[in-house]
């Protein structure tokens, strides 16, 4: 407590938003009371104060990242260490509230200074307290629910590129997902994107179960590193103490990685790959590994956005992310690509907590859509098409329209029924190569008869051969 009142004034240099100060404790120990990750209060000669975080320790030199930036900061400023890391407010009162990257309210709501504070960036969960993923999170997005099911405690990114509607898509999942609490973390957002998320949650009537941590593009870079930790610390508390099913939405993790790179360069660290630091993998893993289904409590599920510069999946951020997460959703040209997307945990729920025909429908639809793409390639190369190829082309168009469009919203059971209807509109039961019991139970024979009748009418209406 006494150490937290001591001020240090031997500022060595100020580079960008980085401040280095020499610190020697009262007992002569190098570094004094400074600890990695702790907060410090920097007071300028004009008595203006700003928070900073300890991001480097080297003997008696402490490196601080100043949240508000160092513009106008004098080398005659003083530094006081607070003795604790960054904290986030946690209570039922934070639901429906918006905070910035350092946890201060942005919405002008009631004061929360008396509410409980929790430290961020804690250790990952003890593996003995984890449960095997076994529960589905419904999103009402057919390309997710039917073909790449989202599972509680899963960590999965949306791979996309600039210009794609990934933020609109993420907001819609936050609205439609059957989670108890949604915690949103935005990094480097322009104001329009921030307003999109907030207005979408408010208009849908789900803002009361949502907590938002937002770092805008004009805010300090260091806050982008704190936003995921803030969001995950709060989510973990809701899951453990309130037994809530929490969905964490993060966008954009590439902006988070770029902030790591910028700070690493300012600290004279040696870059590893395309300017990113060598610890990029561990920095991403520290956040993603917070996803967990807690034994005897709730769960934390992480759905993030990772933009790929130049649509390059080998870029260091998506490349490292792919080794950490349990699959990915690949969003391009406004649709979820069924071949680029993958959920490695879907087998834990498909056919077990979902309908018995789920697995067969999923596999058949993808197999036939793959054949439809081959048929389309044959057509584009002017090869002769069979009658089955023609039906495959029709099926491929229906599949794109009814399922791949991210604006389509259907409950899982309705989506499965629509799959059966789509199959019946294009194929006969024996062409599906599915289990006979499932075909007898779910195949809509009335749709098949309508199709056959339409085909017969088309043949009868064709002009006869001229003698």
Please describe what this structure looks like.
With 467 residues, this protein is an alpha/beta fold. The protein has three domains: 3-85, Thrombin, subunit H, CATH 2.40.10; 88-346, Rossmann fold, CATH 3.40.50.12240; 358-457, no CATH class. 34% of the residues lie in helices and 22% in strands. It has twelve helices and 20 strands. It has helices at residues 142-145, 166-176, 191-203, 222-242, 253-266, 280-288, 316-324, 358-380, 387-404, 412-426, 436-442, 445-460, and strands at 11-15, 18-22, 38-43, 49-58, 61-66, 78-85, 87-89, 97-99, 117-119, 155-160, 181-189, 210-216, 245-251, 271-273, 276-277, 292-293, 299-307, 327-332, 335-336, 342-343. Strands 8, 10, 11, 12, 13, 16, 17, 18, 19 and 20 form a ten-stranded mixed sheet that branches. The chain has a six-stranded antiparallel sheet with strand order 1-2-5-4-3-6, with no helix packed on it. α2 (166-176) packs parallel to α3 (191-203), α8 (358-380) packs across α9 and α9 runs antiparallel to α10. It is elongated and about 95 Å long. The chain starts with 10 loop residues before the first strand and ends in a 7-residue tail after the last helix. The mean pLDDT is 90.
